[in-house]
Specification:
Helix content is 16%, strand content 31%. The protein has one helix spanning 57-68; strands at 8-11, 19-20, 31-36, 39-44, 51-56. The protein is built from one helix and five strands, in the order E-E-E-E-E-H. With 77 residues, the protein is α+β, with helices and mostly antiparallel strands.
Length: 77
């Protein structure tokens, strides 16, 4: 089995173009993402100056696919 890509946690530095998820609620519970070369960065849109999680592009595709297909949910590993 392939090893997961490295996850980096940092702070937004103004160089990303952020997009809000089309699945985000109108109550502000939103996730934004930005493409950054060979990685994808995620952040909480309510805290635009807060932490940013950056993962490899392949890991991001696998994660988003699992979420949209319902393979991930609270309480499941």
């Amino acid at each position: 089995m392939a090893q997961p890509s490295t996850v980096r946690v940092g702070y937004e530095d103004g160089r990303f173009v952020w997009r809000k998820s089309s699945y985000s609620d109108h109550n502000g519970d939103c996730v934004e993402l930005a493409e950054a070369g060979h990685s994808v960065a995620f952040r909480d849109s309510k805290d635009s100056q807060g932490p940013v999680i950056s993962v490899g592009r392949r890991a991001a595709v696998v994660f988003v696919s699992a979420m949209t297909e319902g393979r991930l949910s609270a309480g499941r590993v």
